[in-house]
Amino acid sequence: MKIATYNVNGVNGRLPVLLRWLQETAPDVACLQELKAPQENFPEQAVLDAGYKAIWHGQKSWNGVAILAKKDKQITEVCRALPGDPTDEHSRYIEAIVDGITIGCLYLPNGNPAPGPKFDYKLGWFERLKTHAAGLLAADKPVVLTGDYNVMPTELDAYKPERWVNDALFRPETREAFKTLVEQGWTDAIRKLYPTEVIYTFFDYFRDAYGRNAGLRIDHFLLSPHLEKRLVAAGVNRDVRGWEKTSDHAPVWIELKDAE
């Protein structure tokens, strides 16, 4: 099974890019973030015409997450909000079971400026994620937690990391939160297969960041122990970042062999 994650940065404005990417790479499952569209404006028919069914949780102008699955896959929604704060109205998490694999699609808060209320919200969201993730691991089932984490875990994950020391995506508190999450028993799929390579998933629109390969690795796949054993390939569709009117993120993907 091929599973991908892609922060589309506006699902309707980037719809031609999304549809081209789906056609060219044909993931079995695609997790999307930053839909930037209310629930009723998700382009469901275009996605269906592309061969995918979808569940989504939209939000006007901001956020929004979706899980797409090929039409021959069974997809069952589990929840469309991260547990732990019923007052949180941001559309940042959706979870489904696809062919026996629990897939959590997340868009973790940016947190800037830091310190401040937005950074506090980011760290609080992280704590809720860790609690939920621990419960998923305790269930002893195959789980993928993927999406835009807005975290560069190490200096290897940032071009010129010294420039990011005070940014919410790279502050010690953020990296420690990600580290403690992984240490629950999750596997960072990209680093499992490419422990020392420079790999970026985000390139700013300014200063020719894509052309200079001046990027960040902030889109991640965390795999439960069941799936760590099944991981056979992973990568970034870096070329998609170079397409016309594209997102500032590049899609990331993994391939899992069938369960034994």
From TrEMBL:
Keyword Nuclease: no
Catalytic residue positions: Y107, D148, H249
Documented EC number(s): 3.1.11.2
Lineage: superkingdom: Bacteria
MF term (GO), any: DNA binding
UniProt cross-references to CDD domains, sorted A to Z: ExoIII-like_AP-endo
Annotated positions for site Important for catalytic activity: D219
Protein family (similarity comment): Belongs to the DNA repair enzymes AP/ExoA family.
Name under which the protein is recorded: Exodeoxyribonuclease III
